[in-house]
Amino acid sequence: MNVTHKITIERAAVADIPAIAALFTASFTESVLHHCGVLPKPQAMEDVFALVREAEPAAALVAKAHGELVGYCFAPVRLPRLWLRAILGGHVAKWAWRWLTGQYGFGWRPVKVIVMNKIAFLRSALQPSRAAGARILSIAVREDWRGKGVAGSLMDEAIRYFAANKTLCVRLEVRPDNAAAIRVYERYGFVPGGSTFDSQGEWLIMFKEME
Fold it and tell me: What pTM was computed for the model?
């Protein structure tokens, strides 16, 4: 556990999932609307983040202030484990059932968009020059807590977790026009290493070689 300026960094608990899902939706509303056409019911995002936490609990980090969640970061050491858990753990079947029965609140088109985008990301991940199992998969900070060191505290803990697991290389993707995020990542030693694309446009791929 790490504490900085009233911010506590912890491993996410199951009870944190709804707040994480809500923060993701609030932070990336444009992307969610692009993929789903509408804001989906909370269950949709909660199911996704429940899987991410279940696949590697120690990689699920949350920042709290006064007991409230103000940020999160998912930093898996072995990303392929997540896809295996999704299939073998029955998550894909559960998602399909909930989607078909209207529990997610969106129709067929978003499913097609999401699947095509995941295929594009997997294709870029399989290229030998870009291979890296460890990721900064998703990170977000509540708007009223931005600029107060939350992202840095989450990144510090993620880097410690990677180092403890003897990770050699870490990858992340960020939109090229997200200058603020890129500056943070560069401060932690990430450098550009290519690009990939989805239906929303270009992603800059960045890598960090661990010492």
Answer: 0.85
